[in-house]
Amino acid sequence: MKPVIGGWSLRRRVITLLTVVGVLLIGLATAEAAMAARNRTQIDAILNQTGPLRVQSQELLNAVLDQETAVRGYAVSGDPADLGPYEAGLDQEKATIGAMRTLLHDYPQIGQELRIVEERAEQWRLSVAEPVITTTEQDGTRAGQALVTEQARQRFDEVRSAVGDLQQEILEAREQAAANVRNSSNLLVLLLIIAALVVVVAGAVLLLSLDRMVIRPLTGLATQVREVAEGDYQHRIATVGPPEFIRLGDDVDAMRQKIASDLAEVREARERIEWVNSQLQKQAEELTRSNRDLEQFAYVASHDLQEPLRKVASFCQLLQRRYAGQLDERADQYIAFAVDGAQRMQRLINDLLAFSRIGRLTTGFVDVDLNKVMGDVAGQTEAARQYADAELTWTDLPVIRGEEPLLTNLLANLVSNSIKFRRPDAPPKVHISARLVGAEWEITCQDNGIGIEPEFADKIFVIFQRLHSKDAYPGTGIGLAIVKKIVEYHGGRVWVDTDVPEGTAIRFTLPARPEDVEAAAAAATAADPAERPQPADAGEQTSADEVSSELPERSAGADQPDRADGASESGRTGDMRETVG
Fold this sequence. Notes:
Layout: H1 10-77, H2 84-101, H3 108-139, H4 141-147, H5 150-229, H6 243-323, H7 329-357, E1 366-369, H8 370-380, H9 382-388, E2 391-395, E3 399-402, H10 404-420, E4 429-437, E5 440-447, H11 479-489, E6 494-497, E7 505-511, H12 514-526, E8 553-556
Parallel strand pairs: 2-4
Antiparallel strand pairs: 1-3, 2-8, 4-5, 5-7, 6-7
């Protein structure tokens, strides 16, 4: 049983750590944002409130001084023009006080001091300035100067003192705002430092955690895996750390156990294979000895057995010719049986020798023109075709790599079979054609004979397998077995096409030469799709690399001599069909 895996997983631990750090950083970021906003407000107070108030307080003081100076000058000169600064100072005072009041929303103490300045300035004008101006206008300068006394100066000093108190209050407010800016800036820097420390501490904790929870367990697991990889398949892999790593270690250990089990099976299989190889080697040696024995038997069959058989056949034929009709009917029948048996034994031995020599006595593959081969086949089967009034035709056949004698034997057997298994009510017609299918030539021998039932399509290629009695159709039953062996020796396959409407169609394949495949592919690529050949029937689809075209037809007959290359005088025998009879 596997141990129960408990504790926090690595994912949960990392997510928890990142969550805590994220909450801290979000809190610090919020505090920093609030402090930055407060700092901006305080800076704004310095730049847009206390600073302008300080300037305006100085302008207020200048306006009051202009008024006092203009009053004293008018008392001395009595010139009304000297009262211009007084009027201007009064207007300046009112405008300055109005502008300052718009900036005093956050400073009620400064507003109170401003009201004191305004009241004392008004009292000075009522008690000093206005009487001096009126007296000077009515009684002259001497009377006016008489009113400019020490008490009048004290009254103005009270106004100046009130303005000084106002400026001091504004200065203190500005200093307080500056102190607040410095404090908020320092706190903002502190928060940034704390955030940096949180990041550094979190990174250190994460690094240490990864080292303890990831790197060390992985290193230990890798060390154990290397021990297993070096050949210690019985070493059990144990892992510590988070649950994921423990499960990974269990999976790796399960894989180790599976590999160890498979390795044990492979070793057992290798031992069995070595034993089987030894048995196969013994069988190969036995087959080698058996082949030598078969070769000796073939030699004996071709020489020692045929010599007495020829004597038996010869003397039986002599008996038949010399004493035919001189003995009774039963004796003639016995002699005929003996002659027929000896002749069939000779044919059977020759066919067996031919079958055994296929692939064993080789001359090597060369380029073979099947048109020339068909010319030779036509010559070999001429007597049988004349006897049966048979017609043999073929379309232009390809050049393939193979052994010419074997390919001649192959096609001769097919043509002979087609002539032999003919219908009694129609003269035989045999046609040989070829088409390129993929990288193979598919060659068809089509006749109009008696045909083959589908259930017997595979049996006809078995040696000595006959579907009819020897009295109905003569032969040893080896011909199609020889055909199959020759085709397979050349790397092809042979079968009976049972879908033809009449007669028999035996098809076989032979490997095509690379240059023929390339030429067919180039021709198919260059051809217009609308002009490409269509399938021969609904049940057979023509592949892209299959070349099917109407080729010139050649025939073999008594009136047309066969040339070595299977061609006529002009190099082709297209459209010429001739019946031999």
